[in-house]
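Lecture 7, part B: from sequences to assemblies.

Below are the input chains for today's worked example.
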Amino acid sequence: MEKKEAVLEVKDLSVIYKSDLETVYAVNHISFSIEKGETLGLVGETGAGKTTTALGIMRLLPQRTARFTSGEILLEGVDLKNLSEKEMLKIRGEKVSMIFQDPMTALNPVLTVGDQIGEAIFLHNENNLSKKEIDQKVEEMMEMVGIPKERKNEYPYQFSGGMRQRVVIAMALVCNPEVLIADEPTTALDVTIQAQILSMICDLQRQYQTSVIMITHDLGVVAETCDKVAIMYAGEIVEYGTLAQIFTGEAHHPYTTGLFGSIPSLTQNTRRLHPIEGLMPDPTNLPKGCKFAPRCEKCMEICRQEAPQVSINDGHQIRCHLYMKKEA
Amino acid sequence: MAKYTIKRLLYMIPVLFGVAFLVFTILSLTPGDPGTIILGITAKPEDIAALNAEFGYDQPFLIRFFNYIGDIIFHFDLGTSYQSRQPVIEDIIARFPNTLKLTIFSMSLSAILGISLGILSAVRQYSKLDHICVVTALIFASIPGFWLGLMLLLIFALKLRVLPSYGAGTLRHFILPTLTVSMTSAAGLLRLTRSAMLETVRQEYIRTAKAKGASEKRVIWKHALRNALLPVITTLGTSFGASLGGAIIAETVFAMPGMGTLITTAIRQKDIPVVMGSTLFLATLFSLIILIVDLLYAFIDPRIKAKYQSGGKSRG
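Predicted structure of the full complex, as structure tokens:
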């Protein structure tokens, strides 16, 4: 990958959740970067640490339990980890905003959708817009995401799931943020609505040149929307590369191979699905060597003893002993 | 909305009829008759029978009941007290202001204390303040009202001699009874507000608001409070009923001339019209309060407003 100016750069980030009884190693030394207008797919099973990464960037992790143990989150060169809560208020919603998974619960039931979209503008009102101008901007934004502006005085319960997600998206994009984090934005929606919402996010992204982190477990969504892909497993990025490298490249992490293998094929006549056997390791007690070793079909002796390093080939990063050997 | 209100007002009729029947039946099942109680057991049986006949007490149960209901409906007459021979309504008008004052004072105090400390406690969860609030609330929720009243009486009226121990003449007379009634319900409201608030701040829309860049203060006041107050308001309505009941205890402890003392004396003297009249009066008041609380809901939750407007059939 050629070096362009990265909007958001996450370097060696680790997050733990610490309670009196146990310590959960949710995110372990992950690094990635996004350039302007680019989409990064963050793919992995439930519990892989995708949402923790996202909330970490937003600095919205639960205060009592979550801790950053290493790394930096650089937004245009500034480490968000070091900002005060007051400084973060200016970042959230304006520079980095987030779309949540479930539109049914993401909107406040007692406020009108217009109010909720308008609040984002009101909170970051640097141009001192009047109430009327804010109202106008809300209407524009609503039309942009495909909601008739007459509905701005309606309440969330009067909207369907897909429409609510449009409201959430309008809310996230109304301040024209540098980075949009979309945390499984279509998981809770019907398939037909999913396509609409995804293409809308892509259109708006092109229009505003927003960088997007697309968190998903759906490889179909990744193929449609992303430029770069990071495959996460047990809090680590096990494979990282361009869409082409991940989808059509030759070398893969065994976990990525497994993920693709578990998609049912439409063209071949197979009677059984091919899931990856076993479960994710317990994040309070991660294996000493490679985290994927217990489930890996190509597991070797060294995998159980030593954690693999990353091998880089034309920007395509794989964290696996299989490829370490080749280099040596 | 108007249609819903009228419907709810009409529902009150069967409720009040039921209350009247129940209380009337219980009174009739208690031993003794008004004639004997007024004239004493040494009086001549003929005199007692004559007095009972004058009150209409010689009639069968159902006829007496329907006569009573008929008087209320057709003559707006709550009857005449057996003891004082005064219209019941005059007794109520004389006593009710004290009870109303006491209830309003204690409701306001418990709402202010309970809700504000509950919010504070939730916002500063696990802080020292939170621990103090929770423990104090637990203590007051467990103390019986009459005991608290007696202790307050002992400390402030007898030992310190700063407040009067009985009567209802000035506002100072209301301080101890108000504390007696409000502490228990304030403790309940604190615990409820705290838990409702804690549950609300864990909702996803609170995270959405934070992700927009709303400050913690704004998240609490604009996003969490209205949602958290819904269950609190319901309880506020029912605790109005509890306050009326608490007022009866406080009135007895502090010898205050109110509805509570009126009813308890009347029950002891088997003064059926007074018991019936004041019970029905309080029941009507209580039903109206509950209705107001339900209507208040609509202003907080748009889903409920829509439900009321559609005639209460659809679910929001």
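Note for the exam: The CA atoms of residues 100 and 106 of chain A lie 7 Å apart. Keep this in mind when comparing with the next example.
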